[in-house]
Amino acid sequence: xxxxxxxxxxxxxxxxxxxxxxxxxxxxxxxxxxxxxxxxxxxxxxxxxxxxxxxxxxxxxxxxxxxxxxxxxxxxxxxxxxxxxxxxxxxxxxxxxxxxxxxxxxxxxxxxxxxxxxxxxxxxxxxxxxxxxxxxxxxxxxxxxxxxxxxxxxxxxxxxxxxxxxxxxxxxxxxxxxxxxxxxxxxxxxxxxxxxxxxxxxxxxxxxxxxxxxxxxxxxxxxxxxxxxxxxxxxxxxxxxxxxxxxxxxxxxxxxxxxxxxxxxxxxxxxxxxxxxxxxxxxxxxxxxxxxxxxxxxxxxxxxxxxxxxxxxxxxxxxxxxxxxxxxxxxxxxxxxxxxxxxxxxxxxxxxxxxxxxxxxxxxxxxxxxxxxxxxxxxxxxxxxxxxxxxxxxxxxxxxxxxxxxxxxxxxxxxxxxxxxxxxxxxxxxxxxxxxxxxxxxxxxxxxxxxxxxxxxxxxxxxxxxxxxxxxxxxxxxxxxxxxxxxxxxxxxxxxxxxxxxxxxxxxxxxxxxxxxxxxxxxxxxxxxxxxxxxxxxxxxxxxxxxxxxxxxx
Amino acid sequence: xxxxxxxxxxxxxxxxxxxxxxxxxxxxxxxxxxxxxxxxxxxxxxxxxxxxxxxxxxxxxxxxxxxxxxxxxxxxxxxxxxxxxxxxxxxxxxxxxxxxxxxxxxxxxxxxxxxxxxxxxxxxxxxxxxxxxxxxxxxxxxxxxxxxxxxxxxxxxxxxxxxxxxxxxxxxxxxxxxxxxxxxxxxxxxxxxxxxxxxxxxxxxxxxxxxxxxxxxxxxxxxxxxxxxxxxxxxxxxxxxxxxxxxxxxxxxxxxxxxxxxxxxxxxxxxxxxxxxxxxxxxxxxxxxxxxxxxxxxxxxxxxxxxxxxxxxxxxxxxxxxxxxxxxxxxxxxxxxxxxxxxxxxxxxxxxxxxxxxxxxxxxxxxxxxxxxxxxxxxxxxxxxxxxxxxxxxxxxxxxxxxxxxxxxxxxxxxxxxxxxxxxxxxxxxxxxxxxxxxxxxxxxxxxxxxxxxxxxxxxxxxxxxxxxxxxxxxxxxxxxxxxxxxxxxxxxxxxxxxxxxxxxxxxxxxxxxxxxxxxxxxxxxxxxxxxxxxxxxxxxxxxxxxxxxxxxx
Lengths: 554, 554
Description:
seven-stranded mixed sheet; homodimer; Aldehyde Dehydrogenase, Chain A, domain 1; Aldehyde Dehydrogenase, Chain A, domain 2; five-stranded parallel sheet
């Protein structure tokens, strides 16, 4: 049985799920021994620990000129000491160019089979990837497992499914028979889905696989060769994924250079040189707006970006103010505000928030919010694991500086992580800012920073949230209202700013979270990014339909 | 019955046709009295003649500040004297902004119904549009009827069908039910296809409706308001289309400003000011590469272009050299080489072309080609009608200058048009150029200009055709070969340059022609343009999917 036949049912299910947008997950998100095996966790941990201080020798790509690696664990605050094979840009491009001319001729079915098989291999390494993710990004264990493992694999499968569907959208051949009156003109026509060429995927330091695999798999399914350029601070999770892709390619007789890893360092970055190379046709990027916008401006490239945004929460009226405060405190604390979907600006009317028990004032809500943040941080069974660690030292500096922005309602502090005494930790800082001080909240303050903004009324809250999204980008929005007219106004106005809204979330679901096969991640319609996981545009732009024709044989 | 119900069957047929890519046409291309009515032609001609020297008063848009019009007939070489209501940019944008907020809330079904109804109204004016097209573009009667009438309407319907399908691609709502072990997380989700805002369509002087209606209908079906900015030299054909769209909008209670006409003059052009306006979100453009590339570079705009290309013909081996020479002579002569799909560079191996009767030398083929061009031009029943007239005086100057490019094999000359003694006519000029003089053939020589280029062999021919397409763009390619390996090499190499190839055409079908619902026009994959009529990308990029969600009601 070939790999397409092996995975056909899953691919078809994934395509159906893309269209239904009801719940679907191919890879179980719970790190349960019943699902993944009794020793899977311990084995993964051991494999990760064994990789520290060593060369990563699993890659099959050619042309290695040296070894490099500069990862550091935010939990240990020490170097991981892992090095990866490095190559110069010309070697990477030459490899990718040769591999492209092989891969582009592989059928959509065979590509899909190989790619889904690689995800099955990656599945066997979810725990190892989880530890690699923890010790590069600072994510807590559960998030590291889910986001870098099953959720990332689901997003990769989603891209494969979307690409496969588009490649099959038009017939490979058709007979065109045009009646002209006394005779017919008859042509044999054919259409080819022609991949663009060489693609690259530039990863970020906080979600190294989740934000990278959609681009990798989307470019591969559509026939492009791919160079994966992870953030120098978070290489290992993607190195494992690339190794497994290369393994399946090799086993099936294909050039492993179809998907290469390109490592670099902060001091000698490769991204710009790779991106500007005339052979580079497709660029996927997750990261800061400045570099993202520079990439978007490169002529003759197809660029897909997820940049930064200013995410808003609009508070109007609630059923249960304590549940709301608890939900938002968790949303802010989760991975210390280092998610691109984390809330930052909380708009509260000066008249307060409507509840069944009457108005809750700005100050009362702030108090409840702070109590919930503290309650979570100080719960030793939850705080350290929800907060995780801070990936980048600069984020800690930003948190410290934030206190200059307004009236400090809650100071950031360190808490102890019982497992990692050296972990880099910062609990959320909460500030009060006036609605008139737009310059203070009109920028992404990456990290555990919340601004409570007093507005005249909900209309001003909506206008500000919309303006922030339109001008500075937004990836998520939370809104609380029990009034159906206000709800539709928020839904309508924020949709014009291309921002998805989570309404009235309480309990175990947060505005930060979004689900493969259902929630489009980033819409592509505001400055937070020009792409979306996974809408049709995300795969269609990676290839070109070209039709040829000739007179039909009589 | 509402308009969607009225046209539902046609819309569904059109969607099916998009996917089958077999022959489909909704609007009969033959100007037959049996189809269009005994007096349709005479009536249309009369209406056109009556419009000359008068105000065009059919538009319902608001805010007119004056009247202008500078069209001139290439057949009469005199001003048409038709004036159109003009408005300043702020008025056009304000109108479009107000209309947008109405139109965006109209259902996909109602939009589709209104738009298809407008095409039915336009159908009643195909002959009037044909005469308007002749006397602005210089096209012959038959082409003017077909291209501006039924073929344009088919392309518009194609855009409506493609847009409608994409708007329906994802559910408007879904229940998301995620098992979490002991409980389920249940969300009600909804997705909105949010139009980008205000769109504009910049027309060209040679195919005023055919090249404009796809963008107009694609932007309208996806909920954007549209400003149509025709070329000042060819306004009337689109003015009629816009008037009919406005009529149907008004009859159905909608603001006619949903689709406005914006007229300008060569001396005071509006395109740049409109395009750069911060509210302008979508721009469709057909025209020269310089302005097209400038538009593509505007930040924050979704731009769809058809620019210029260098179309090649590769001659390797043929079944019947006379039929090939005849076909290519016609392809070059049709509308005097003023089609974006017309052949320009003819690559012929120095060893000659293989035929069943042996080699035909470069010189012999050139002779046959020239004889066919002369035979067509000098046939009074065909020449004047196939050649039409030259739209722009500059094209005549370019033809005259072309003789400096190489050895002149055939001089351009004037022939007489029995119906229009003052018609601006130039028969094709044919030159011999060496393959080494790349600077001479590496640019579009718009008009009836053919370069016969002597190459070492077919491999050099292919390499040059590919290089021209990759570097300078190409919209069509003709190739003649009876060798299946050469054929696949051409198909493969030209597909990498995103150029569709017509193989071995003889008889009544030409490389210039392409059919709605089957041939993608322009691929979007080379410098000749970034868009394609009508691939999914062409409609998807005009709106953004935005999803909202909230806990499901218990």
